[in-house]
Amino acid sequence: MQVTSSVREPLITGGKTLKDVTHDISRQVEGKPSMLWLLALLVSVGALALGFIALAATLWEGIGMWGLNKTIGWAWDITNFVWWVGIGHAGTLISAVLLLFRQKWRMAINRAAEAMTIFAVICAAMFPIIHMGRPWLGAYWALPLPNTFGSLWVNFNSPLLWDVFAISTYFSVSLVFWYIALIPDFATIRDRATGLRKVIYSALAFGWDGAAKTWSRFETVSLILAGLATPLVLSVHTIVSFDFATSVIPGWHTTIFPPYFVAGAIFSGFAMVLTLMIVTRKVFKLEDYITIGHIELMNIVIIITGSIVGIAYITEFFIAWYSGVAAEQYAFVNRAFGPYWWAYWSMMTCNVISPQLFWFKKIRTSIVLTFILSLVVNIGMWFERFVIIVTSLHRDFLPSSWAMFYPTWADVGVYLFTFGLFFTLFFLFAKFFPVINMFEIKSIIKSSSTKQSK
Amino acid sequence: MERDKNFILGVYDDEDVLMDAVTQIRKTGVKIHEVYSPFPVHGLDEVLGYRRSRLPIAAFIFGLIGTTLALTMQFYMMKFDWPMIIGGKDHASLPAFIPVTFELTVLLAAFGMVGVFMVASNLKPWGQARIFDLRITDDKHVMAIDLANNASIGEEKLADVLKLTGATEVNKKSFE
To answer: Where are its TM segments located (chain A) (predicted)?
Structure first.
């Protein structure tokens, strides 16, 4: 019954049937965990535990534990915050924007990419919360709650407050979008399971019945959520960039920031999706679902967004010169040729030059090279945020207060903590949740799968 | 015979065969209870004669509530309850209120719509579905016909119709 298009490359290889899809994805959830998985989880939990020492020390002693000084008030914390939020953006882009554009190749990767979004946003949100110093009082500083000062409200003119609303809305809407799509797949596992697993997945499946009426409503909900999530994801990194752009610090006060940050976010996010998916497809033997074609398409997104980021770097420099403002010009010359030149040129190499290698088909269809370059892009994007934040601050308006930033063990440890948290959550997800959206794959198996060999 | 208890089920392997079957069966005057599928079949709701979902309207209304709530809150807090001079700007600075207004609009629209969807489709944690056939979450489409609603046609004839339209199996299912 299957029809293979002669125009498009098949999205699913290996002549899979509907039953094969159910089996291939559900067996990861049902089978005993592999040694490799246990080892990976152990390393992640180890990083989490080790990082927790730094986190606890920071909460106990205060953020004086970090390498911040009176000139550089923001450094690794906000760098990590922006980096993690940026990584999250690819998940929403894949699941919402590509849904609106009817890009069916998203179906193999959207579940894991959305999970990545949610975990990355959790890691991101940790940094501003810790940076409050006394996070247990933070609710009064961040949310408009009635308080004993009269009520003295939060400042709605501040981009930092906009961030609170943007990040929390982004997190909760992404979570709902992700969970709604998980319900039918939990029902699949429920209907195959017995015993305790059946009890657990019954609870998670919310009483899904698969009726045509429910599916019809479900499709409507998905479409509207995608429509809402698309401007939402663009707004989130725009608002993150406002944290800098609305200030009057040379190097931050630029109108190019919102589009430049959004492109950078998608760029780094796709790199992280590639890092995770290349490992996941190998470990869980999902090569028929996440094909070289998928990897190639993601690499093309990386070329595009990487080039946008590259143009933004050059535009920034041009505008700094063209503005004729000496402070602005100095900020940029100092970025490239000052004491932090190595950070700037690491960023340029990793973000502007390395993704251009994907113009070669051999490179963008090579799994090993893609994996390496995806790590390079992630490193580059961390440096981008570090460069923007630290180099713009470290030589401020008074040369007598010029300083350098040196991270302490607590800076490194808290960053390690978020890595541990992210990978622990991701590995737990990969084992106990269906990593590929089964029902979406089933809906395209007739039109986009290779012919059955049987 | 009591309604909503005894069903005859047609099992279909292929979504296109199923779509034709639904069209043909409805033409003969049989009332289909519901069709259960492992994945969304595009156009199935139309051939079944379902109305378009009104969930977008729910989303719009909840979004509107979000917008109103956000603007009211910000103007009340910043302009009326405790006006403060911040950077010499106007207390009521609409442009500065747009980001939070947008976020709350999206938040309420999304949560409101999903809430309505869950109530309408009876989805809740620990919810129990009435399962006609375990394979409907795997690889089979199942058309359920309520015997009580089609008493005039008769069970045997219904089975024939199902088989004739391409059902690979015809089963019976009763619920207490």
So the answer is: 36-60, 80-101, 113-133, 160-182, 221-240, 260-279, 300-322, 342-360, 367-392, 412-433
Separation between Cα atoms, residue A71 and residue A397, nearest integer Å: 10
Question: Hey, how many other C-beta atoms are within 10 angstroms of the C-beta on A431?
Answer: 18
Predicted confidence (pLDDT) per residue in A102-156, tens digit: 888 888 899 999 999 999 999 999 999 999 988 988 888 889 998 888 788 999 9
Fold of the domain spanning A18-448 = Formate dehydrogenase/DMSO reductase fold (1.20.1630)
What confidence score (pLDDT) does residue A454 get? 38
- Helices A159-192 and A438-448: crossing angle, nearest 10°? 70
Token pair of A77 as six digits: 């914390």
The closest CB to that of A166, out of B48, B97, B99, belongs to B99
Kindly indicate the confidence band of residue A350, based on its pLDDT and cuts at 50, 70 and 90.
Answer: very high
What is the ipTM metric for this complex?
A: 0.94
Spatial separation of the C-alpha atoms in residues A382 and A233, rounded to whole Å: 20
> Mind listing the domains of chain B with CATH numbers?
6-52+131-174 (3.30.70), 55-120 (no CATH)
Phi-psi region of B29 (alpha: psi -120 to 50; beta: other; left: phi over 0): left
- Reported as a single tens digit per residue, the pLDDT across A35-51 is 888 999 999 999 999 99
CA distance between the termini of chain A: 12
Residues of chain A found within 8 Å of residue B175, distances taken between Cβ atoms: none
- Considering only CB atoms, which chain B residues are within 8 Å of A153? 77-78, 81-82
Chain A residue closest in CA terms to B56: A224
Q: Supply φ then ψ for residue A175, to 5 degrees.
A: -60, -45
Average pLDDT over residues A86-100: 89
Judged by phi (left if over 0) then psi (alpha if -120 to 50, else beta), residue A14 lies in left
- Residues written for chain A: 454
Minimal-distance CA residue of chain B relative to A222: B114
CB B91 within 8 A of CB B79: yes
**Looking at the partner chain, which of A207, A232, A440 has a beta carbon nearest the beta carbon of B106?**
A232
**What does residue B133 show for φ and ψ, rounded to 5 degrees?**
-155, 130
d(CA A212, CA A324): 64
Contact A108, A9 (CB under 8 A): no
The domains of chain A are located at 18-448
- CA-nearest residue to B135 within chain A is A191
Residues of A in contact with B35 (CB under 8 A): 211-212
pLDDT at position A451 over 70: no
